[in-house]
Write a structure and sequence with these properties.
333 residues; mainly alpha; Rossmann fold; Tyrosyl-Transfer RNA Synthetase; 2 domains; 3-stranded parallel β-sheet; two-stranded parallel sheet; elongated; binds tryptophan; binds iron/sulfur cluster
């Protein structure tokens, strides 16, 4: 029996290299060893953007297309949309009854969210009931499949800890050992920074999208920060102070290439423009197959629709088994 993995992502639209290298590529590697459930968390999107739903559907499709392009294989893993598995909402209700209010109030990401919301000018500028329940809803996602492991970034570990607390409480209240305490599985990869050296993010306009064309990518890479002290081509370069471009080389280049780049940079045999032109080509090479797959799905949206529907139906079958048991344990009619 394979162990179960459950993880999810909010539908933020087209994904970037931070998502690919930081999350999706990890998921791809887990597919053979584990039974995986990957969810597009569209209810979680509503917690902060309930008044901006006009792009929700397309954003969901774009996320799934990027997953498929990166190599999430619907034959191996179950790809589904959260709201197409309403059993999760029912489970969320049971869990919300046994979760003390102060457990959700001490959630560290809630404070960050509140800050972001304050800077919004839309309706959603205060913390609503649904947002308070964010980590309980995430717990419901995980427990809908009684998962063993939850691959997440460091920022989500607190949520998985809360899940473990809720599991213990549920098992205690209903005198059972039905739910397993899931373990967070940390992604062990270095974060890729944005073109400007800050965290890569859609709203910072410093990202390279999985779905960008080769031309767009090449153009963006030319804007990557280099060694700021190097004004002219014949100034000696300092790869270790090259804030973005050299870091990208270390991610995308082979060891020998990276060594060559560093040597040539140090003795000014290589200018930054040429260096970044090569780097752009290197990144495009790595993304070639991924982008071909994405274009294939873009040309066949009906395939993506089918994968979403079938995956969600499959997820629902599992979810119903779990919920049947939960209803019995809680002694519902
Ligand atoms: N909260 C996660 C994030 O913002 C997304 C998510 C939703 C998730 N449900 C999940 C992650 C279940 C892991 C498991 O990134
Ligand atoms: Fe960075 Fe390349 Fe310029 Fe050196 S030559 S500073 S590694 S971009």
């Amino acid at each position: 029996m394979k162990q179960r993995i459950m993880s999810g992502m909010r539908p933020t639209g087209k994904l970037h290299l931070g998502h690919y290298l930081g999350v999706i590529d990890n998921w791809v590697k887990l597919q053979d060893e584990y039974e995986c459930y990957f969810s597009v968390a569209d209810w979680h999107a509503l917690t902060t953007k309930y008044d901006k739903t006009e792009n929700l559907r397309q954003d969901t499709i774009d996320v799934v297309m990027d997953w498929l392009a990166c190599g999430i294989n619907p034959e191996k893993s179950t790809i589904y949309v959260q709201s197409l598995v309403p059993e999760t909402a029912e489970l969320h209700i049971y869990l919300s009854m046994i979760t003390p209010q102060n457990w959700v109030e001490r959630d560290p990401t809630l404070k960050d969210m509140a800050k972001i919301l304050k800077s919004n000018d839309g309706m959603a500028s205060q913390i609503n009931y649904g947002l308070m329940g964010y980590p309980v809803l995430m717990t419901a996602d995980i427990l809908t499949f009684n998962a063993d492991l939850v691959p997440v970034g460091i920022d989500q570990v607190a949520h998985v800890e809360l899940t473990r607390d809720i599991v213990r409480r549920f098992n205690n209240v209903y005198n059972t050992d039905f739910f397993k305490e899931p373990q967070p599985k940390l992604n062990n990869c270095s974060l890729i920074c944005g073109l400007d050296g800050n965290k890569m993010g859609k709203s910072f306009h410093n990202d390279i999208k999985i779905s960008d064309t080769e031309e767009e990518t090449a153009k963006k890479v030319m804007t990557a920060i280099t060694d700021r002290s190097r004004m002219r081509k014949d100034d000696l370069g300092h790869p270790d102070e090259c804030e973005v471009a050299f870091k990208y080389w270390k991610i995308f280049g082979e060891t020998s290439e990276v060594e060559t780049v560093a040597e040539e940079c140090k003795c000014a045999k290589r200018g930054c423009a040429d260096c970044k032109r090569q780097l752009g080509a290197k990144i495009n090479e790595r993304l070639k197959e991924i982008r071909e797959r994405r274009r294939h799905y873009e040309a066949h949206p009906e395939l993506v629709e089918q994968i979403i529907r079938e995956g969600s139906a499959k997820a629902q079958v599992e979810a119903q088994k779990i919920l049947k048991e939960v209803r019995k344990l809680v002694r519902m009619y």
